[in-house]
Amino acid sequence: MRIDIITVLPELLKSPFEASILKRAIEKGLVEVHTHNLREYATNNYKQIDDYQFGGGAGMVMMIEPIDKCISTLKDERDYDEIIYMTPDGNTLTQGIANELSTKQNLIILCGHYKGVDQRVRDHFVTREISVGDFVLSGGELAAAIVCDAVIRLLPGVLGNETSALTDSFQDNLLAPPIYTRPAEYKGWKVPDILLSGNTPKIEEWREDQALERTKTIRPDLLDD
Q1: In a structure prediction context, what are the per-residue pLDDT tens digits for the chain, which is 225 residues long?
Q2: How many angstroms separate the CA atoms of 194 and 203, rounded?
Q3: Mean pLDDT, the chain, as a whole number?
Q4: 3-state secondary structure of 102
Q5: Which residues contact 181 (CB under 8 A, 6 or more apart)?
Q6: Half-sphere exposure (Cβ direction) of 49: Cα atoms closer than 13 Å
Q7: Where among 88, 118, 152 does a domain terminate?
Q8: Is there a single domain that holds both residue 183 and residue 124?
Q9: Under 8 Å CB-to-CB from 36, ≥6 apart: which residues?
Q10: What local confidence, expressed as pLDDT, does residue 163 receive?
Q11: Element spanning 22, H or E
Q12: Which domain holds residue 101?
């Protein structure tokens, strides 16, 4: 997989890919992540990539021409499955979306800034719009990093245990069940006996029951879906 991130602030995207699982995935050649500074595609000497909005109003708007030049340059080199725009009014990122994106080969992620991008970018270039929640960030970089993390960890060979991602919360519209590790008793707080029994079918049944009960209590909306 290859992910190209178009950004005004590429420095914000360095650290997430220089540590932990994402770094290992890149080093193993399972994914390529490239950042592209939008100012390098500006059309004047001032590296301008934003301007006042037509009709008046507060806030600047990212201009269409630098974005067009950047996307066109990338598309001249390869085909892309999706051009994703990170925006608060996009579709909320879900595990299902992450699962789907993990099956793609090449992705472009455009990070919004200011009041957002010229609408013509959304109309003619963007194929999918994603939000990480009903709130506004100062830019789309952190949101893009979240999407990358959610997608890359699903790629075969990234996680040490290939089945680990399949048991995450939301994979089956349920929250994960409670989990425990050593010691079996701490300050009088005991691990449920069933987990120490060695009876795998009964343990799985307990986990399914616990997952359902947790979901009913904490996120009943998931069951409506």
Answers
A1: 999 999 999 999 999 999 889 999 999 999 999 999 999 999 888 899 999 999 999 999 999 999 999 999 999 999 999 999 999 999 999 999 999 999 999 999 999 999 999 999 999 999 999 999 999 999 999 999 999 999 999 999 999 766 566 666 677 889 999 999 999 999 999 999 999 999 999 999 999 999 999 999 999 999 986
A2: 6
A3: 94
A4: coil
A5: none
A6: 24
A7: 152
A8: no
A9: 4, 5, 6, 7, 10, 70, 74
A10: 54
A11: helix 20-27
A12: 2-152
For residue 161, the model assigns a pLDDT of: 66
Q: Note whether 27 and 76 are same-domain residues.
A: yes
Residue 73: CB atoms within 10 A of its CB come to 12
CATH of the domain at 202: 1.10.1270.20
75 φ/ψ angles, rounded to the nearest 5 degrees: -70, -20
Q: How many domains are contained in the chain?
A: 2
Which phi and psi (to 5°) does residue 118 adopt?
Answer: -50, 130
Extract the runs of DSSP E, i.e. beta strands, from the chain: 2-7, 32-37, 50-52, 60-62, 82-92, 106-111, 128-131, 185-186, 189-190
d(CA 62, CA 115): 8
Place of tokens 């799985």: 204
Q: φ and ψ at 128, to 5 degrees?
A: -155, 140
- Based on the fold, state whether residues 138 and 180 are members of the same structural domain: no
